[in-house]
Amino acid sequence: MAVLGKKSKILNLIAVAAFLIISSCKQPVKESTETKQETPAKTNVPVPAFNADSALVYLQAQVAFGPRVPGTDAHAKCADYLYQKLKSFGLQTQIQSETITTFDSKKFRLKNIIAEYKPEAKQRVLLLAHWDTRPCADHDSVRKDQPFDGANDGASGVAVLLEIARLLPASGLETGIDILFVDLEDYGQEEDDTRFPRQENTWCLGSQFWAKNMHRPDYFAQYGILLDMVGGVNPVFPKEGTSLYYAPDVLSKVWNIAQKMGYGQYFINEPAPQTIDDHLYINQLANIKTIDIVHYDNVKKEYPPYHHTHGDNLSIIDKNTLDMVGRVVLQTVFNK
Ligand SMILES: [Zn+2]
């Protein structure tokens, strides 16, 4: 897989280089005396205004269902809510469903929810987040076997993308966008879980399934952006290691944009360890260069303190973080 990835990167570079050569070989169109206007290099349309209040409502609505643990009523209701919301925005929406066996030999009906903006466009960007929540607060000191709200870990990325999805149909953007809400990201086996034999690839089952069964057989996107834990207080987004390995150019582009927008103290130029998150499988299996914007404390070398605890609830949500991440993603997508 790693070799294939590298090869395709080289191929992409060759393609870009070839395009540049072709472009530069082109003779400029004979200057007309009537008009001095050159064809504009960019066909950018205005970046729509991200509404953080709207995103917050989408976050609260998910939390109100209760923990979105696979197999529960809250999970089923939230899937329906997400599907209906995306559809109501005027996007082509579908649910990809399959029975999946988890590491503890349970079976669940996996639901990936996909919405397409301009399905016919060749230039595409994939935006994704997981919408399920972890079945247990195993990092907590109390009620470790009980689920938690997942206000940040689950609901925040989905909320930002719902707000972006709402803005797309009227935006005039030429690039096609695919919004992918993946299921069963957070049902993985912890390192110290000895109840079951140690297994590989137990996290991110929804993205693994999608990458092997893409909603269009010949699907490809120029790049992908995963949002995970993008609504917390005191956010910090270092350059996550798996993103740096597979998609350093995408990472640089997004961080440069964030820094130009004045968010340099949050989108910091520090490498962070490689993590297993949905983008790993999108990179490895679907061969789409995908980065992860994820809250990670690079000093303590861990996720924020409420991660996988009952503390991951509405009290740690900051609307300004949703706003910042939403604006950065929009700016990136609209500037190509
Ligand atoms: Zn999680």
- First-last Cα distance: 27 Å
The amount of helix comes to 25-40%
The CATH topology assignment is Aminopeptidase
Q: From the coordinates shown, what is the CATH architecture?
A: 3-Layer(aba) Sandwich
For the sheet with most strands, the description reads: 6 strands, mixed
Structural class: alpha/beta
Widest beta sheet: strand line-up: 1-2-4-3-5-8
Sheet-strand content, in percent, reads: 15-25%
CATH superfamily: Zn peptidases
**Whole-number tally of structural domains:** 1
Could you characterize what this model shows?
With 336 residues, this protein is of the alpha/beta class. The protein has a single domain, classed as Aminopeptidase. Helix content is 35%, strand content 16%. The protein contains 9 helices and 8 strands. A 6-stranded mixed beta sheet has the order 1-2-4-3-5-8, with helices on both faces. Helix 2 (52-64) packs across helix 4 and helix 2 (52-64) packs across helix 9. The protein is globular. Bound molecules: zinc ion. The site of zinc ion has 4 residues, from loops.
Descriptive tags:
two-stranded parallel sheet; 336 residues; 35% helix; Aminopeptidase; 8 strands; globular; alpha/beta; binds zinc ion
Task: Describe the structure concisely.
The chain is built from 9 helices and 8 strands.
